[in-house]
Amino acid sequence: MEEANIADQILMGTNGISGDGPCLAMVYFGIAQTYAGRNLTAEQINTMLADQTIYTKDDGARAPNIVISRALNVLGVDTSNLSITFE
């Protein structure tokens, strides 16, 4: 599996992504990107941040297993045999 170039990952406060709030969600997205070996686009990130099952401005990121699994699916990773737990 090729490695995602961390330097190419979209950062908060750039590309239309809020610099105020989604830091934990962005960490979870980073985990998924590193695992998948591909980076999310700004459009993919903004779409997931607009989904209240992933992130809300008031409550922040949802459980990491939910956010990471969704990001992996967006990145095209089959998670059917992958166990992502939150303890």
Number of domains: 1
Shape estimate: globular
Strand order of the largest sheet: 1-2
Question: Mean pLDDT score, rounded?
Answer: 81
Radius of gyration: 12 Å
Low-confidence stretches: none
Query: Structural class of the helices, strands and pairings?
Result: mainly alpha
Share in β-strands: under 5%
Helix content: 25-40%
Kindly, what is the distance between the CA atoms of the first and last residues, rounded to a whole number of angstroms? 27 Å
| Structure summary, number of beta strands | 2
What is the element string, with H for helices and E for strands? HHEEH
Total number of helices:
3
Major sheet, described briefly? 2 strands, antiparallel
Molecular structure report:
The chain is mostly helical and 87 residues long. The chain has one domain (6-74). 39% of the residues lie in helices and 5% in strands. Strands 1-2 form a two-stranded antiparallel ribbon.
